[in-house]
Amino acid sequence: MTKLRVAHSIKDEEFTSQKQTSKRLTVGSLWISALSVATAISALGMSQVACAELTWGDEESYQQESNYQQDRSIDSFMAAAIAADRGDVGALYNYEQIMSGGLFAMYPTYWRMNLDLNSQSSAAVSQFVRQYPDTVMAEKLVADFAESKAGSNDYASVRQVANLITNADASERCAIALGFNNGGDTMRAMAAKSDVWLTTKKQPALCEQLAMEMNNNALISNQDRAARLKRMLRVGKTGDIMALSSRLGTPIAYSALSEIQLNPSSFFSRFGREPASQTNQYLYLYAIGRVADKSYREAALQLDFDIKQDNQRAIKLLNDETRRYAYRTLGVKRMNHNTDDGFNAEAVDWFRHSLDDDFNFEEAEDYAMAAIRFGRWDDGVEAISKMDGEIQKDEQWQYWLARAYEQSSNSSKRNTAKKMYQNLAKNNDYYGLMAKDRIGQRFDASRLGGSNLPNVSTADRARVMQDANFARAFALYNSDASRAYANREWNWAVKQARDNRDDNLIIAAARQAYDMGWLDRAIYAVDNTDRVNSLALSHPMPHQESVVRYSQSAGIDPAWAYGIMRQESRFVSSARSNVGASGLMQIMPDTAKYIARNLGETYSASRANSGDTNIRYGTWYMGDILSKLNYQPVLATAGYNAGPNNAKRWQPTYGAIAADQYVESIAFPETRNYVKHVMENATIYSSLLGRGQPISQRMGTVPGAF
């Protein structure tokens, strides 16, 4: 199964709010809708004695208590949250006293401090972390504080709390690095270099600032500056270009960049009369980038013309490095236009022309994707070799290296490919399943417990509610609080257990979540450990009768329907995306109207979003897309996520290609990963449903559009 790892954004992970019915908490104990805690414990095979009641002492008892079944602080949680929303500091002070010593004691204090975070002192924040150690709210407060202080240039405060942050996301890591970069500790600032220095993708504001400031870091070499400058010339970031070129001793004036931006043709027309200066090399790359932004075809014609002209000169105006990176620019820009223009092998050729120049990851990835798309296996090997050594070890690139070696006439390389497949086949994620098929292995769900739930000891069940993090998550789940609070506490609890290598605790918590119907967090727990394999928890099959019946009616594979549903909603029936998709199958309103019309029904938003109707609508739509896309499940899966027209646009123009090549070259990263996960899910569900179908057979080949 897929091992997703605990996300850096765990503190701020926001999930769709879900309306909970009849989920109340009495003053003395937790109650689940229609199912009391006592009943829930019994259902788990856990005696009430094992979860003995415990009353709270003073505030200092926070770390010593070990059973949270009788905590009362949750009773005030919602009222305190409302006070925080209206900025009522006095009320929050009161709730701090009322909730003191309880599981949720930190929340009113956090909310109060967070009302004006930038005015807090590092000492106050540090005290909060000491008072509530190893909690997600302590981690969140100190990380948010560091970001806030970095944003206001109070770098001393950042440095004072930096060592208290244990699970920083990208922006927080940059805040810490800025703190040290402005405090003379250039070595610690450089820890973030690999994340920010050569990337050309959109970054958090603090990371953009850090990259700019690193230009003046003593540990940044001129070679580093030149490498970044070329990337900034490609994307056209004026501020970076001016700062970097100045440090390199070849300052580029804003007026020169502005003139090219307005009229690059004018620059090209006079370039042949300009001196062969380094500044002009930079300006040429900038000009090629600006033309390529509008038309890579026009830029390619310009570059070919200029090189032919230049080759006739006694003294070349374009040096080899400029030529190589101009071709690199064309390759990247061409890959960025795949969605609109379709794919073309010329991108591979342009990247090959740039081989002797260093690649950043985005460039190497684009090169690899282009090579994979057209089966240019030698280029694929070249592209992967340009990636960082650790990245090359990722399953994704190990799989494609093996695919490339498999095509070789060299028997040694083919043997290497087999060994690489064997290693990948130890896993049951997308690439592991694909590798299994390459060496004739079969996925067998029964080896991972099949549909049988794992046995959990009484002691491990008891430990779940003896763990403060999990106890908070379950209490919030059973309250009227926004589900985002419960999910955040749950994710943190999983992280802590994972860090402690406590797999038994993770599986016990996942089992309890499963039994309560909290399937998305059960999945999250199992997916975030490498040493727990339980398909019943990671791939549950709720609504099985409906899924099978409606899938059969729509002429689709129920395993595929489950694969879509697991990826779309994680079986949260009330899930709603930020663009309006709803329900288990995450159907957009306009799509639901289209489905209802075709089924001869009157559209009703509430009915369309309900569990049974949402499944019926979703499976019908899957069948509809499948029939429109050559009955090809990979195309249909891409179409379900990105729309049928995009799925068609990504088809090869002529001739078929292997489905894994199609998937790897999907132009939208979100859709690319989505299809991989759905195919993985469907393969596992097919085995669970007793209709096991290998993933490569399921995916097949993708036909040409003509």
Can you describe this structure?
- Strands 1-2 form a two-stranded antiparallel sheet. A two-stranded antiparallel sheet has the order 3-4.
- With 706 residues, the chain is an all-alpha fold.
- The protein is globular, with a radius of gyration of 28 Å.
- The chain is built from 42 helices and 4 strands.
- Mean pLDDT is 90; it is low at 1-9 and 14-65.
- β1 and β2 (35-36) form a beta hairpin.
- Among the domains are: 51-196, Bacterial muramidases (70-kda Soluble Lytic Transglycosylase, domain 1, Alpha Horseshoe); 253-386; 544-702, Lysozyme (Orthogonal Bundle), CATH 1.10.530.10.
- It is 60% helix and 1% strand.
Q: Work out the helicity level.
A: 55-70%
Strand order of the largest sheet: 1-2
CATH-defined architecture of the domain at 544-702: Orthogonal Bundle
The CATH topology annotation of the domain at 544-702 reads as: Lysozyme
Q: What percentage of the residues does DSSP assign to strands (E)?
A: under 5%
Summarize the structure.
This protein is an all-alpha fold and 706 residues long.
Which helices and strands appear, and what pairs or packs with what?
Layout: E1 31-32, E2 35-36, H1 37-43, H2 77-85, H3 89-98, H4 106-114, H5 122-131, H6 136-151, H7 155-161, H8 170-181, H9 186-189, H10 193-196, H11 205-214, H12 222-235, H13 238-247, H14 254-262, H15 264-271, H16 278-294, H17 296-310, H18 320-336, H19 338-341, H20 346-352, H21 361-373, H22 377-385, H23 389-392, H24 395-406, H25 411-424, H26 430-438, H27 458-466, H28 468-477, H29 483-499, H30 503-515, H31 519-527, H32 535-538, H33 544-554, H34 558-569, H35 589-598, H36 605-609, H37 611-628, H38 633-642, H39 644-649, E3 657-658, H40 659-664, H41 669-688, H42 695-699, E4 701-702
Antiparallel strand pairs: 1-2, 3-4
Helix pairs in contact: 2-4, 3-4, 5-6, 5-7, 6-7, 6-8, 7-8, 8-11, 12-13, 12-16, 14-15, 14-16, 15-16, 16-17, 16-18, 17-18, 18-20, 18-21, 21-22, 22-24, 24-25, 25-26, 27-30, 28-29, 30-31, 33-37, 34-41, 37-38, 38-41
